[in-house]
Each structure stands twice: as C-alpha cells, then as structure tokens.
Design a protein that fits this description.
Distance between the termini: 89 Å
Number of helices: 6
Strand order of the largest sheet: 1-7-8-5
Length: 242
C-alpha cells in the first residue's frame, strides 16, 4: 500500500532537511575557520575555491529542497535562505584576506628555506660546524628583528613577543624540536623559517648584525633508525652588532 504525502508533509520534510543541512554547513565552515586561524592561510586557489564551491553547492541543494517542498514560489524564503547561506563564506573570505594582508612574504620564506636546506647538507657532508648568517641569507629583503620560538609556544606568547597581534592560535605543537624563526619589519612578520632540531637560545630576539649562528649535526642521544643525528643551532656571537 502506497502512502502519498500531502503538500504539508513534503514541506515539513523539506524544512527538516534544510535545518539539518544548514547545521552541517555552518559546522563545516567552523572547522574551516579553525584551520585558517591555525595555519594563518591567506587567499589562494585552494582556499577561495573551497569557499566558493561549498557556497555554490549549498545554494543548489537549498534550491532543490525548496523545489521539492514546493516553497520556491515564496521569493522571500529564497532570499532569506541565501542570506543565511552567504554569512559563513563572507566571514571566511574576510578572514582569508585579513590573513593575506599580514602573511609573511612567501618568496622570502622560500628563499630562507632553500638557503637553510643547503647549509643542512653542508653540515652533514662536512661533519663540522657551518656558519649561518641570517642577514646574508636575507639578501636585499629588509628586516629589523629576528625572533626564535620554541616548541609549544602559545599564540599569546608569540603576539606578546612580537608586540602586535599576528596569530590567533597556538602553534609549534607537533613535537619537541619544532622551532619557528620569524623575521619582523615594523609591525609585520615578513618571513618565517621552520627548524627541526635544537636551538640553544630560544626564545630570543636578534638584530640583523647579531643573527650569526653555528649549525652542527650531532649524534642524537635519543635517535634511532633513520634519525640517528640532530641539528643544533647556537649563537656564534661573532656578528657585528647594529
């Protein structure tokens, strides 16, 4: 025996489906915003595409449910639903562009990473200490302060040391040797460099002429298998202060 739903029944089902879908939709954007805060992600093909794709899918699904529930003839309903659905992507988009305005220069960060990787190889191949002069590594990119943060540094600690709001979330929580070196010009972080090892003077702050270190590759007392050694970065104290 077939049971036919009345128009009222279809409307109730459509509204319940809409409520569940909107709840899931908002929850998804919540986790997306948490990810943006943690990674400080700025606008890019992936992030902007994800925002627009999810919004488009939500609009299409909402229109379909309104059609099934025979509510599409009520223009105010569609406008209200569009406003409800538009709120998360607008907020997330604003977060992305705000992060992009304060994000470090990707070219600077990449250049630092490549130069530091080359020094890693030199330290491993030579078996001796290698001098790391961050002012020379920076090339023609200016910076006024270099700050080193150790593992498990909180966002509050980072912002306090910087003297301005830069991150909303805690970071460097992956393992005991996850250090981050930030380069600051004025009230902006212009470059960042990750370091997997041990830094003897973290957290610390250095001027360009003071940022001279020695990089060594030493046996790790806790190392085993593929990681029998560890990198250590120590102030050389040989730079010309400025």
């Amino acid at each position: 025996m077939k049971v036919r739903l009345s128009i009222r029944g279809w409307r109730i089902i459509a509204l319940l489906a809409l409520a569940a879908g909107i709840l899931f939709y908002y929850r998804s954007y919540f986790f997306f915003d948490v990810y943006i805060d943690i990674t400080r992600a700025g606008p890019g093909p992936f992030s902007v595409g994800a925002v627009l794709l999810s919004f488009g899918a939500a609009v299409a699904l909402t229109w379909g449910l309104l059609y099934l529930g025979r509510l599409k003839r009520h223009g105010w309903t569609a406008l209200l639903m569009l406003a409800v659905l538009a709120a998360p992507p607008v907020y997330t988009g604003a977060e992305l562009f705000a992060n992009g305005a304060t994000a470090p220069d990707p070219g600077f960060s990449l250049a630092l990473h490549e130069a530091f990787t080359a020094l890693h190889r030199e330290a491993v191949a030579g078996g001796t200490a290698v001098t790391v002069d961050f002012r020379k590594m920076s090339g023609d990119r200016p910076w006024e302060r270099m700050l080193i943060f150790g593992p498990y540094s909180s966002g509050e600690q980072v912002n306090k040391a910087l003297g301005f709001q830069w991150t909303k979330e805690d970071f460097f929580t992956s393992h005991e040797r996850d250090y981050r070196i930030l380069f600051v010009q004025g009230d902006r972080v212009v470059g960042e460099l990750g370091f997997d090892g041990l830094i003897r003077s973290a957290p610390s702050e250095y001027k360009p002429g003071e940022a001279v270190f020695e990089l060594t590759n030493k046996p790790d007392p806790y190392g085993a298998g593929d990681h029998p050694t560890m990198f250590e970065l120590s102030p050389a104290r040989t730079g010309e202060t400025s």
